[in-house]
Amino acid sequence: MLSLSHHQHVSVRIMVLNIIKNPLIISCVVALAFNLLSLPLWQGLKDFIKLLASASLPLGLLCIGAGLTFMADKKDYALIAANSLLRLIAAPAAAYLLCTLAGLDGLERQIITLFFALPTAPSAYALTKMLGGNHALMASIISLQTLLAMITLPVVLWLVI
User: Fold this and answer.
1) Euclidean distance between the first and final Cα of the chain, in Å?
2) Interatomic CA distance for residues 52 and 32, integer angstroms
3) Are 70 and 91 in contact (CB under 8 A)?
């Protein structure tokens, strides 16, 4: 979160308040409480939450599409490309290597490597915009990584299996 709001000269107090008010953090805490306390959830609410969850990725991508501008500064092209290559190629390679060094093999190594091969989540756009970061740059990064992942994910999957 600090990297998304570094230009705002944010104090620790403001950062903690931003974390506490973050809808992603709040939903994780509520879900964890429900899970730990074994609280029952009304079936109608459960179905509603499932509908919201299934719509979250397309809605996130629509928000990114609305914020995407292809007229970005030329200096950003190298940053976007480097970020995408690191995320989609270097991260899974490092994860595979670390899993091998740690003695993990088989399904565990495959799952960890595939998780590291995924593109940046669309929720990063909303978080960047909420914290006043460069949301246009984040939209470009997410869009490019999502497109490139159509190529890199099958290759990583083929290599780790």
Assistant:
1) 35
2) 18
3) no
User: Which residues lie closer than 8 Å to 59 by C-beta, 6 or more apart?
Assistant: none
How many residues are there in the chain? 161
pLDDT at 1 exceeding the cut of 50: no
The tokens of 73 are what? 């500064």
User: What's the pLDDT at 10?
Assistant: 62
* Inter-residue contact 56 to 120 (CB < 8 Å): no
How crowded is the C-beta side of 152, counted as CA atoms within 13 Å? 23
Tell me: the pLDDT tens digits for 96-108? 999 999 999 899 9
Give the Cα separation of 123 and 28 in Å (integer): 14
pLDDT in tens, 4-41: 555 556 677 877 887 788 887 888 898 898 889 988 88
Distance of CA 36 to the CA centre of its chain: 25
Q: Identify the sign of the CA torsion 55, 61, 62, 64.
A: positive
Would you state the structure tokens that stand for residue 33, as one six-digit string? 């409480």
Confidence (pTM): 0.68
